[in-house]
Amino acid sequence: MSKHPVNVRARPPAATADYRAVLKQALQSHQAGDLDIAERLYNDVLELRAGQPDAMHYLGVLCHQRGRSDEGMRLIEAALKITPRHPDAHNNLGNIHKECGRFGDAERCYRKALACGPQHYNAQNNLAVVLEAQERLEEAFEAYATLLRQAPKFAQGYYLMGMFLRNHAQSMEHVEQSVECFRTAYALDARNVRALESLGMSLYALHRLEEAAQVYRDWLAREPEHPVPRHMLAACGAAEAPSRAADDYVREVFDAFAESFDEQLLKNLNYRAPQVLAEALGERLPSASGELDILDAGCGTGLCAPLLRPYARRLVGVDLSGGMIEKARLRGGYDELQEAELTGYLQAQPSAYDIVFSADTLVYFGELQAVLHAAHDALRSGGWLAFTVEVAQGEDERIDLSPSGRYQHTRRHVERALSSAGFSRVSIGHDTLRKEGGQPVTGWVALAQRTPGH
């Protein structure tokens, strides 16, 4: 659902204790993640008391969580006809619109929530997010500032303000301000480790390299087994870079990122990698006739599914993050989803696919040869590999681990790895994949074919 937890405090009903007890059980099951039980119990409440607004509201939230967003909206709208001044219901209806990409509708819902409850911090926070998504940046900044004035102890508000300042930085002063926001966010909530990770990245962007490294050293001293500071210490040049990002690092980052992944990438960072790669691949393929077996390698939340589905007889998604897999399952479009490490998965799929498609996944691999060799063997004769990685400048063969935690590759490294893996008909272009720190991130857009007849 939203990265902001649903407020599941039931409004006091005016009827018998029977349905109240069932509603309480439903809310407890919902909060515990037992969605099957919660859905059954919400429906039981509505049988006991038709039109009970809390049951309709939270059943609507649950329907959206299960991928039935239209049904969820109808239920919450029906609840609001009965209790029109319920700020939580307006906020949750806004969340559904936001996560379906209807930012104007979401904005109207959040403004209604704030009209009903001016101190509803989640609605204020969400309003800022959708204003940012609509590129109304001055209004978004004011909305974040209002949130921090209203809720000076709200750690997530400082974190999001820090991200806003860095993502849209027009000067180094904005990055400096993001540092203070991330420090405050972590001071208010020591569980917000993403604030620490972002703090180090902002310090690195300011060329305060030793301070960035010290953030990760201190974090590692407190949590010696935590994969994120271990990886990020290498990313800022203070430790030896691994040949690829460790599985536990990737899993930790993307499980934590799953709830807000689409929002941050698509709406705030102008994420374009899936579309750019799909367009490049489409030029090499026959018309979209639904006859190919396709692997979305590193499927994330399933952003690539609608781009690949027209070509696919069978579309499989694989990802190391269980949180991402669950989001992809809710989005739909796949015939199968697997939680697995990519190289190992490919090695177990000899000649299984016509296309292996990987948008912004190999940025977590340094040396590419092993994974590209596995992809070659997973393709059928004449099959295509399509992937993006970030550009490292220079004519030499080099891999850099950037302060973002992602690897960058020179063109020569990509060419050598593809040749060594056995690919022919190689094409490597470049395009902008996303924005970071207000600046475009350029990537290699690589297409390679397994030689027909081999």
From TrEMBL:
<dbReference type="InterPro" id="IPR019734">
    <property type="entry name" value="TPR_rpt"/>
</dbReference>
<dbReference type="Pfam" id="PF08241">
    <property type="entry name" value="Methyltransf_11"/>
</dbReference>
<dbReference type="InterPro" id="IPR011990">
    <property type="entry name" value="TPR-like_helical_dom_sf"/>
</dbReference>
<keyword id="KW-0802">TPR repeat</keyword>
<feature type="repeat" description="TPR">
    <location>
        <begin position="87"/>
        <end position="120"/>
    </location>
</feature>
<feature type="repeat" description="TPR">
    <location>
        <begin position="193"/>
        <end position="226"/>
    </location>
</feature>
<feature type="domain" description="Methyltransferase type 11">
    <location>
        <begin position="295"/>
        <end position="387"/>
    </location>
</feature>
<dbReference type="Pfam" id="PF13432">
    <property type="entry name" value="TPR_16"/>
</dbReference>
<protein>
    <recommendedName>
        <fullName>Methyltransferase type 11 domain-containing protein</fullName>
    </recommendedName>
</protein>
<dbReference type="InterPro" id="IPR037919">
    <property type="entry name" value="OGT"/>
</dbReference>
<dbReference type="InterPro" id="IPR013216">
    <property type="entry name" value="Methyltransf_11"/>
</dbReference>
<dbReference type="Pfam" id="PF14559">
    <property type="entry name" value="TPR_19"/>
</dbReference>
<dbReference type="InterPro" id="IPR029063">
    <property type="entry name" value="SAM-dependent_MTases_sf"/>
</dbReference>
